[in-house]
Amino acid sequence: MNLTADETLFGRVSNRMTPDLAFTNAFISRRHFVIRKERDKAVLYDLGSRHGTEINGARLTPHYPYPLNNFDIIKLAKGMAVLHFTYSFADHTLEIEPLSITRQMEVPQLPLTIHWEKRECVVEGKRIPMSEKEYLLIRVLHENANRLVPLEEIKSRVWPERSPGAEGVPDVTLDELNALIYRVRKKYGKDTFLISAVRGSGYVLESESKSS
User: Which one of 43, 57, 62, 191 has the fewest beta carbons within 10 angstroms of its own beta carbon?
Assistant: First the structure.
């Protein structure tokens, strides 16, 4: 692709945004890195991606400018995607390696395993039992990983015993739901379940976890 814009965003496609170059791999962050034109140079900034960006094998410092040079190799998330940068006839261009090549790269280690039958999570080797509500919430978010789960569906799945309100949805306040999500983040670690709120709509779990 030709980098003709002043700023080109690279990341994972989501319900809320589509980057200029979009990936579907869950190891790639929604806003992974950006390339900006600065004084006729292409300058790359990692945007605090969870699994990192490398140039020629060196891990980048987030939000720090890295001017690109001819034939630089850019790797996202330890090689889950590989891009080759070149200057071609005064244009900045990027070529992406075929998936069959990038798939062979090292897969980042996963810090979390979920045992649904036992209703427990193993976080960095530590076994943590899930309460009933934690289990139901994590289950519905995990089943729809990286997709928006509407508030109505969460309430129906997590509080099936509640009487339905005027619209047929269990009578659950947002304070109750927010308190449950706060407990999950605190109990399992804020980086274990990356739950993002979509104001007035629902929640998204950015998940790369294993389950059994």
Answer: 57
Span 116-174, pLDDT tens digits: 999 999 887 889 999 999 999 999 998 888 788 899 999 999 999 988 877 788 889 88
H helices of the chain, in order, are: 99-102, 132-143, 151-158, 174-188
Encoding tokens for residue 167? 């619209």
Q: Are 31 and 3 in contact (CB under 8 A)?
A: no
**CA–CA dist 178, 155 (Å, integer):** 12
Condensed to tens digits (0 to 9), the pLDDT of residues 23-46 reads 877 788 889 999 998 888 899 999
Torsion of CA 13, 19, 20, 25, to 10 degrees: -40
What is the SS3 assignment for 128? strand
Phi, psi at residue 18, to the nearest 5°? -125, 110
| DSSP at 152 | H
Cα–Cα distances (Å) from 182 to 113, 121, 172, 185, in that order, read: 20, 17, 16, 5
